[in-house]
């Protein structure tokens, strides 16, 4: 397994170079895991991406580097210490850095000789392929879909030029992932929504959620999905609610700051019992915080967002495949229970590209809204909010029935007419909350990782899945099955069966989260009384790695 870092300033073409290189590596059969670390600025600063690749499935990023492609001196200065003993630094000769690991290459000069100074990134790509013992068999195919036809020939020449200037250092170890997909976490959510029958998406651009809207917009004509860029997040969620009321499967997406503006309308979805899927791609707050970084600090917020009490579901996606399948499930649950379902992701998952096994399409019944089939002759007696045993009332679509399909933000009776009756208020609240009883029967338990007889139980959620899974694997190799972990996807309502089974068997329980207050640990304590003994919390905007988890646990004597 290899890991390379490409770093420089914003505007130096890092993202283009990374995008082409990861496609070439995937074409060679490697499993690819790419993460991006970017500053919130158009030019300047220090940006970098890491591409981890190998012939087996990779669950997360790593800080240990086999190679660095440095587009400026700052990249060498900041990341040199992470290089392995046999690692290398590929950089332009003009940097004049003194280090025996440096492979100097006059990339800018070579690019100018070719006639375009912007192709220096392609020269670097060619050099990297050669260093890792790869061929140029896929270069033409990848370049045809990665650059404009006008620049195709010169970029091919640049790749060949870079390839010929260095010698191979590593053995070729391509895997069997040629036919798998390469996509980001946000693209996985968008594809899941399309597969679920999405018809309307509304949002206001806010990183790191914006690429969901961008991807859906790019596919809108092919998929018959209407994408609306609203004037703000308040408008976006209300548009989605309106579309859902009219019978379309609808979704909105944002980050924590935008979700803050959506919370009153979230309550409208709750009291009017209009299905809604809302995506919160988390970033560090409060306020603007760190717009291009990652965090898991919105959990308790979304669990209780909006005033009053009403049923909702919160699902944290754990990886890219999970993002696809859970998005489909979110639409199913929203329609079935007529509630808002909130999908929690974060910048780490949103902007990382990984190799994913081709997705399965859902069954037709999974993408068909749960609508009531009432005889049209009885429409005049239709009660939109009829009191039922399970709390789920018959749902009809306006315009497809003779009946009035009422909806209002005020408390209402069974017909949907406004009321201030104390008795009806109590019964209607009980009816809505009663949905949770049936919903809890469909919750997915957290995935257990590790040894059934573990002494130390790690708890995590969402994007901590990859780092925790890799950390448990590393730890159990060293400590003979001492560690296990539960990683939650469904978080609210909280599934408790597996937790109540595993927790009493462990000597120590440690929660690992990307926030400052241990929010999952707090929810677990509230609903089960189970107390975590220790916490590993990281909240500097950068995702914790498996190596960091192992190091902290070992230093803590756990």
Short structural summary:
The chain has helices at residues 14-27, 73-79, 107-114, 120-131, 139-146, 152-164, 185-195, 210-218, 220-223, 233-245, 256-272, 299-304, 320-337, 347-351, 422-439, 465-479, 497-502, 519-528, 546-555; strands at 2-10, 31-37, 44-54, 65-70, 83-92, 102-105, 181-184, 200-203, 226-229, 250-254, 276-282, 313-316, 340-346, 353-356, 447-450, 456-461, 483-488, 490-492, 508-513, 534-537. The chain has 558 residues and is an alpha/beta fold.
Structure description:
There is one protein chain. The protein is an alpha/beta fold and 558 residues long. Helices cover 37% and strands 21% of the residues. The strands form three sheets. It has an eight-stranded mixed β-sheet, with helices on both faces. A seven-stranded mixed β-sheet has the order 9-8-10-11-13-12-18, with helices on both faces. It has a five-stranded mixed β-sheet with strand order 15-17-16-19-20, with helices on both faces. The radius of gyration is 26 Å and the shape is globular. The model has no long low-confidence stretch (mean pLDDT 94).
């Amino acid at each position: 397994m290899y890991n390379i870092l490409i770093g420089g300033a914003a505007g130096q073409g890092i993202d283009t170079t990374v995008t082409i290189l990861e496609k070439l590596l995937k074409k060679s059969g490697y499993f690819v895991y790419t993460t991006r670390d970017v500053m919130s600025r158009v030019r300047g600063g220090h940006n970098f991406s890491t591409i981890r690749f190998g012939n087996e499935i990779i669950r997360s990023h790593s800080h240990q580097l086999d190679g660095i492609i440095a587009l400026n001196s700052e990249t060498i200065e900041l990341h040199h210490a992470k290089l392995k003993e046999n690692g290398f630094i590929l950089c332009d000769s003009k940097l004049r850095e003194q280090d025996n690991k440096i492979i100097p290459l006059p990339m800018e000069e070579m690019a100018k000789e070719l006639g375009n100074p912007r192709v220096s990134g392609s020269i670097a790509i060619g050099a990297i392929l050669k260093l890792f013992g790869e061929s140029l068999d896929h270069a033409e195919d990848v370049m045809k879909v990665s650059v404009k036809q006008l620049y195709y020939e010169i970029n091919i020449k640049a790749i060949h030029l870079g390839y010929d200037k260095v010698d191979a250092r590593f053995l070729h170890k391509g895997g069997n992932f040629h036919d798998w997909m390469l996509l980001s976490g946000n693209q996985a959510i968008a594809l899941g929504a399309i597969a679920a029958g999405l018809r309307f998406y509304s949002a206001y651009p806010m990183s790191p959620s914006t690429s969901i809207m961008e991807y859906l917009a790019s596919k809108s004509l092919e998929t018959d999905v209407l994408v609306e860029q609203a004037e703000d997040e308040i408008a976006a969620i209300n548009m989605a609610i309106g579309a859902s009321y009219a019978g379309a499967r609808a979704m909105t997406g944002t980050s924590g700051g935008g979700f803050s503006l959506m919370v009153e309308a979230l309550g409208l979805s709750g009291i009017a019992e209009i299905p809604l899927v809302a995506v919160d791609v988390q970033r560090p707050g409060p306020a603007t915080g760190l717009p291009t970084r990652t965090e898991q600090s919105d959990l308790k917020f979304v669990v209780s967002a909006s005033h009053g009490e009403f049923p909702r579901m919160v699902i944290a996606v754990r990886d890219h495949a999970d993002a696809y399948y859970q998005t489909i499930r979110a639409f199913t649950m929203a329609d079935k229970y007529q509630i808002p379902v909130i999908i929690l992701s974060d910048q780490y998952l949103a902007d990382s590209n990984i190799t994913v096994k081709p997705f399965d399409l859902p069954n037709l019944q999974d993408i068909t809204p749960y609508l009531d089939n009432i005889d049209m002759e009885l429409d005049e007696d239709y009660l939109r909010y009829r009191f039922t045993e399970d709390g789920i009332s018959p749902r009809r679509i306006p315009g497809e029935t003779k009946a009035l399909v009422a909806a209002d933000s005020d408390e209402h009776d069974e017909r949907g007419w406004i009321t201030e009756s104390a008795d009806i208020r109590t019964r209607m609240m009980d009816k809505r909350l009663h949905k949770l009883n049936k919903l809890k029967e469909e919750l997915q338990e957290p995935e257990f990782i590790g040894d059934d007889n573990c002494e130390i139980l790690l708890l995590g959620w969402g994007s901590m899945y990859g780092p925790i899974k890799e950390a448990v694997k590393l730890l159990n190799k060293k400590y003979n099955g001492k560690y296990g972990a539960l990683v939650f996807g469904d978080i609210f309502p909280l599934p408790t069966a597996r937790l109540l089974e595993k927790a009493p068997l462990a000597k120590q329980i440690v929660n690992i989260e990307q926030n400052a207050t241990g929010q999952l640990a707090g929810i677990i304590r509230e609903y089960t009384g189970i107390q975590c003994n220790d916490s590993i919390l990281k909240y500097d905007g950068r995702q914790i790695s498996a190596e960091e988890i192992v190091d902290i646990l070992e230093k803590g004597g756990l």
